[in-house]
């Protein structure tokens, strides 16, 4: 089942469109890396998904049920966990860390959590607060006032707040912002653990692409409010993960030979006669094939394409091929 679908979602502020025809699909269990330049519209999309901002058009479908007030789609009734869930029932299944988590600096971490838990009417609030502190690794500092917390600790407390309602989905907007490498790694490990042990679906926007690369199972790329590309981690790896460069004495012959031997692999010839293979190729098999055909190999190397270059190209290219 899809945890989140947006259908033709759009948003305008004062007549200016900032999100247009946005069709995003997040499957249950995904860690969805949401990538885009500053001002591309990531936060706005996330705010519409969690109901903080009202769409100007289109709809948000959570767990198969349309979100109330998010377009013309009919709202099926709440059939419980696993079934379609509409409106406010679906919203309650989403935990959000967007912008500042609104922490009260003079209260302890535990008191901050309790204030929210009581306001939201969470059952057995003290136990739940202890549990989420444990989940984010702050159990030892629950009694300390938040004003003495590092940024990394504050972000983890923000995540604990998002987890209070026991959500199925977490929306995390730039959770690594301002964190040093160690805190970044701790936050990344925490997100992966929440996904793998509790099965929480995560949408995470970030400029820190190498962090996304280590955890995302799926990607969405947004440019100027439009979804320019959505792909699985495997597709991304195939496109930018690595490429094979081969130069032989007879480019045309080698190209024909390899295209025939490996019909599923994309080979192209560069102007200098180098053949480049991308996607799911087997370098050893390619080398063997050339050798068996008696081709004189002048160069044979593999390259790793930089993930940042790849995403920058997508964000700037703007070609829509979802
Ligand atoms: N409340 C608002 N009123 C008017 N314009 C807004 C409002 N919120 C966002 N915008 C505009 O909408 C566009 C998208 O903003 P948004 O914050 O969604 O981008 P973003 O991709 O999250 O950027 P960043 O990475 O900088 O957080 C921007 O041009 C922004 O100025």
UniProtKB/TrEMBL annotation:
GO molecular function, one term: ATP hydrolysis activity
Gene3D superfamilies for this protein: P-loop containing nucleotide triphosphate hydrolases
InterPro entries (UniProt xref): AAA+_ATPase, ABC_transporter-like_ATP-bd, ABC_transporter-like_CS, P-loop_NTPase
Keywords: ATP-binding, Nucleotide-binding, Transport
Database matches in Pfam families: ABC_tran
Residue ranges occupied by any ABC transporter domain in the UniProt entry: 4-249
Coiled-coil segments on the chain, per record: none
The protein's name: ABC transporter domain-containing protein
PANTHER family in the cross-refs: ABC TRANSPORTER, ATP-BINDING PROTEIN (PTHR43335:SF8)
Family in the record: Belongs to the ABC transporter superfamily.
């Amino acid at each position: 089942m899809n945890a989140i679908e947006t259908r033709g979602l759009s948003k305008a502020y004062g007549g200016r469109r900032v999100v247009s025809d946005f069709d995003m699909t997040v499957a249950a269990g995904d860690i969805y890396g949401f990538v885009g330049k500053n001002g591309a519209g990531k936060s706005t999309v996330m705010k519409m998904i969690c109901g903080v901002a009202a769409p100007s058009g289109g709809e948000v479908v959570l767990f198969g049920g349309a979100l109330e007030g998010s377009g013309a789609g009919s709202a099926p009734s709440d059939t419980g966990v696993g079934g379609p869930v509409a409106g406010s029932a679906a919203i309650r299944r989403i935990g959000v860390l967007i912008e500042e988590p609104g922490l009260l600096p003079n209260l302890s971490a535990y008191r901050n959590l309790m204030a929210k838990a009581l306001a939201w009417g969470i059952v057995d609030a003290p136990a739940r607060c202890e549990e989420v502190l444990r989940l984010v690794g702050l159990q030892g500092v629950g009694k300390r006032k938040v004003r003495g917390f590092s940024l990394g600790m504050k972000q983890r407390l923000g995540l604990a707040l998002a987890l209070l309602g026991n959500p199925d989905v977490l929306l995390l907007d730039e959770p690594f912002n301002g964190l040093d490498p160690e805190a970044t790694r701790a936050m990344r490990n925490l997100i992966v653990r929440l996904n793998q042990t509790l099965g929480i679906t995560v949408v995470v926007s970030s400029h820190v692409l190498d962090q996304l690369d280590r955890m995302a199972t799926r990607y969405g790329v947004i440019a100027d409010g439009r979804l320019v590309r959505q792909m699985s981690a495997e597709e991304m790896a195939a496109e930018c993960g690595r490429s094979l460069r081969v130069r032989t004495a007879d480019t045309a012959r080698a190209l024909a030979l390899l295209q025939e031997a490996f019909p599923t692999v994309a080979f192209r010839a560069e102007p200098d006669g180098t053949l480049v293979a991308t996607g799911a190729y087997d370098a050893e098999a390619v080398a063997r094939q050339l050798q068996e055909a008696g081709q004189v190999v002048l160069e044979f190397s593999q390259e790793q394409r930089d993930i940042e270059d790849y995403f920058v190209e997508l964000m700037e290219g703007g070609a829509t091929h979802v």
